[in-house]
Amino acid sequence: MNVPAELYYSKTHEWIRMEADAAIIGITDFAQDALGDVVFVDLPAIGDTVTAGEAFGDVESVKAVSELICPVSGMICDVNQALEDAPELLNEDPYGAWIIKVSPVEDQEELLSAQAYAAFCAEEE
Amino acid sequence: MASYIPSTPAQQQQMLQALGLADWRALYRDVPDAIYLEDGALDIPGGLSELEVRQKICAMAAKNKPFATVLRGAGAYDHYIPSIVRYIPTKEEFLTAYTPYQAEMSQGILQSIFEYQTCICELTGMDAANASVYDGATAAAEAAAMCRDRKRRVTLISAAAHPDTIATVRTYCYGSGDELRIVPARDGRTDLEALKELLGPEVASVYIQQPNFYGQLEDAPGIGQIVKEAGAHYILGCDPIALAIMGTPREWGADVVVGEGQSLGMPLSYGGPYLGFMATTAKLMRDLPGRIVGQTEDAQGRRAFVLSLQAREQHIRREKARSNICSNEALCALTAACYLAAMGPAGLEQAARQSMAKAHYLAGELTKISGVELVHSGPYFHEFVTTLPRQAQALKALEDQDILGGLPIREGVLWCVTEKVSRAELDRAVNIVKEVCQA
Amino acid sequence: MKLIFERSVPGHGTEYLPPCDVEEVALPPHLRRAAPPKLPQLSESEVSRHYTQLSKQVYGVNCGFYPLGSCTMKYNPRIDEEMAALPGFTNIHPLAPGYTTEGCREVLDLAEKLLCPITGMDAMTFQPAAGAHGEFTGVLLIKRYHDARGDHQRTKIIVPDSAHGTNPATAAMCGYQVVNIPSAPNGCVDLDALKAVLGADTAGLMLTNPNTVGIFDENILQITQLVHEAGGLCYYDGANLNAIMGVARPGDMGFDCVHLNLHKTFATPHGGGGPGAGAVGCKAHLARFLPKSALMDGQDDHLQVRSFHGNFLVVVKALTYILTLGREGIPAAARGAVLNANYLMRQIRGFQPAFDRICMHEFVLDLSRFKKETGVSALDVAKSLIDRGMHPPTMYFPMIVHEALMLEPTETESRQTLDEVAQVYGELYDLAHQDPDYMHGAPHNAPIGRPDEVRAARDPVVRQKL
Predict the structure, then answer these.
(1) Do B12 and C39 touch (CB under 8 A)?
(2) I need a surface site. Which of B431, C120, C198, C321 has the fewest CB within 10 A?
(3) What CATH number was assigned to the domain covering residues B83-338?
(4) Residue A54 domain flag
C-alpha cells in the first residue's frame, strides 16, 4: 500500500496536501482498494462551503458507496472535473487524482502523519 | 383445501425426526408461549376446495357491473387492448420471476425492460427512463423528491393536476418535511401569473400535468420557459397515448417526465395494478429512483443486460438513498412494451387521434343540448368538462343503458372518450342525456 | 438475441382499430409532435416470437428451485391468476358508481377481515403497491400519531444493523433520523444497545421478526415493551411473515402496525419485479390515519400514497389464496416453510450455517472460512448454481454476515427437491476444493457469462439509440 510521506491523512481515508494558498484533498490508495472499481464520483460545486468532518460528496463502486468526508473547513475553490468522465483515475492514480481544493482553509480536523495513517490502516485490515 | 405443500404428513414427520424434533412446537421453540397460537386458534374460516373458492370469487365478480361503453376517465382510461398484449405477460416465466438480480439467468426480463426504457424515452424525447414505479401519482412524488437539493426544497404543483396525484405528492412532502405549494388554476388551466409569483429561489421543481385533470392542454412550452428562467426543475406528467401526437416534453424543456402508463395495455381493474413511468435527461439520470437496466458485455464480448447504477438504491445507500423503492411494476412495464410493439407508431397515433376526435364529437353533440356547455375554453385532448342539468338523473339513465357517463366533479361532469367508442354509441349516449335534460 | 428494434421493418404492423368514424381534429400547432416516436414496427407474429424467445431466457419459480432469502418465492397457484383475470374485476372503472362496484368492495373488505386476525391488527389498507411502499405508509402512520398528539420531539427511528435497506431508507423518507443499533452475537436485537438509544426522541422501532438471519427473536415481548415505555411505536416489517403466519401474530408481539408483502407470503407472483401489494395493517389507535383516495373517498387532508385503492387485482389473487388455505392451511404453510428450511440447512454438507441453531423459514450460510480455504467466493458458488439449473440464493445479505448466502426454500418444495438441492451444494463444495478456477469462471452454460458491471455503471447505456 502506498502512503506518501509528504501528505497528511484522515481516519476516513482522505489525504490532504497543504499548499500555501489551498488544501488539496483526495482519497487514499487504501480507500480506492477497499472500494474496488470506482464508477462514479458525485462532486460538489465550486463555491460550496465545507465543514471539517462532514461529507462533501461520494464515490460509488458497483456494489458500494462511500462518503467523502472533508478534513478541513472552508470554501471549495476548485473541483477536479476530469473525474466526471474518468472516475477510474481514482483507482489508477489516487494521489494524482485530487478531488477538491479548499481555500481559504478556516479550520481543520486533527490529521494523521503518513506513519500514523499506515499504522491505522494496518489495524483496520 | 390446499396449501400447495407437496410433502405428505408422514414425510413431514420423518423430516422432523431427522432434525431430532418431537413435534411442531419444538420447531417453534423460540416463540414464547404467551403468543403461540395452538392448532385451530387462528380465527378465520376453514380452507376451501378450488371449486368452492372459484364459486365464491366469481360470485363477488358478478356483483360488479362492467359497462359496455365507458365515457369516464379521470386517471383510468378504457383504451383498446389487443389480445396479444393480454397474453404475453401471462407467460409463467415472466409472471413468476423475481427481480432480475442474477443477470445470467434473467436476460429475457432485463432485455424486455431495456426495450421498455427505450420506448419511454422515444415517447418523451428523454435520454433515460427507469424500469417503472408504482403509478403516475407516485412517479410525480418521486420526481419531486429527485429534484430537491440542499438549497432548493419547495415543490410547486398545479391545482389542475389529478387530485390523487396532488394528495400523493402532499403525503410524500409531509414525510420528508418539505413544503408543497399549489399553483392555482384559472379556466381549467394553470394560472401562469400565479406560477411566476410562486417561483422563488427556494423552488426545486414545478409539476404540471399535460393534458391536465380537466382534459385541458396546458401551454407546456410556455410554462417550460417560465420555470427555466426561475432556475427550477420542470416536471411534466403526461398521458402516454397523447404523446403519440403531442410535442415531446423534451422540446418543452422538461427535466423529468412522468405519467400513468395504464393506458398502454392495462385494463381498468378498479385502480390497479397500473404503471408509473419516469424519464429524465442524461444529466439527471443518476438521480432517478428505482431500478434501471443498462447494457454491457460479458467477457466474450456478448451483449448483456444488467440492473445498473445500483449504488443509488436503498440496499446499498440505506438511509442516504433518495427513495426506498425496490419492487416496481415490472410486469406492467412489460405489458406496456408489448402494447407499444403491437400497436406500433401508426397504431398508437390512431388511438390518440381517434380518442381526441371522438371526444370533440361528443362535446359538440352534447353542447347542442340546452343547458349543456363546456366549462373551460381552452384546447383539450380526450377529456372535457360540461355543465349538465339534472346531472344525477342523466348519469343514471346512461348507466341503465349500459353506459358509464362522465365523472361528476365540483366544476360539472368530466367526460372522456377513447378510440373504443363508436360514433353510434356516442349518438346513443347523447340521445339519452337529451331525453333526461329536456324531460 | 436481437432487440425488438432490430427486428423492426418499416411498414410492418397489425391494425387493431377500425377507421375513424368522426371528423378529425388537430392539436394546436405549438403542441404538435414533429416526428413520430421510433417505436418498433412488427407484425403480430413477430411480436409474439420476440417475447416467446425472451421468455426462454427468464427463470421463474414455476421453472424450478428459487430459494431467494427474504423473497419467499413460493409456488404461484394458477387459480389465483384466473380469478384476477375475471372481466367482472378487470373491466371495472375505479370511479364507477358504488352500486356497480360492490364486488370489488367485498374483495377488499373480506381480505381485510381475514388478514386482521392473521396479523393481530384491527384495520388495514391496500393502497400501498409494494413492501417498501407499505413501510413508508406504516412509518407515516407513526408520524401522524405523534403529530396528532402534539409530540413533535420524536425525531428518531431505531433500526437494527441487520435490517433490510428499505427500513433505514423509509425512515429517512419520513423525515426521521435513523439510529442503527448493532445486533447481538446471536443475530437478534441487543437489549442493552436498544435501551441505550431509547428516549423521549424515539418515534419508533422498525423490526423484522423472524429477523433477516432467519431467527425468531425470543425477546420480542420485552423489545416492544421497552419501545412503548419510551413512548415510541413498533413497526413490523412483514417480509418474513411466511415463517409464522397462523403460528404467532405481530399484534400479539406488541407491534402497532405492519406491512405485508402479498407478493411473498400470500403467493401472488413477482412478475419479474412487480406488481406487488404492500397491505398495511394497524391497531385501532392508528386506524383513523390510514390512507384514502382524494377522488374515490372525497377526503382532504388525509394521507395518500398512491392513486385510487392500490393494486386491486393483486389483492384478488391473495384473497383467493387465503380462502383456499384457510384456518388450517395458513399455519400449515408456515410450518412447512420452517421445516423445509431446517431440513435443507441440515442436509447441506460442507458449507457452514452462520448461526448453528434452529432457524425459521430461511437460513444464512457463512462462506468466509470456505473462501479462505478455497478462494471461492459466495458469488462464485451462486454463479455455479446457475450452471446446475437452479436459481442462486440471496447473496451478501444480511450485511452482518460476510460471504453470506441466504436460502429460503419455502413450503412448496418437496423433500426430494431439497435432497437433490443439498446434493448439488455438496458437489459444489467439493468442486471448489478441486477446481476453484472453474467456479471463478461460472456460469459456463448460461446465455451469457458474468456481465461487466463496472462498464455498465461507468458509461451507462440505458436505452437503444435509434
Answers:
(1) no
(2) B431
(3) 3.40.640.10
(4) yes
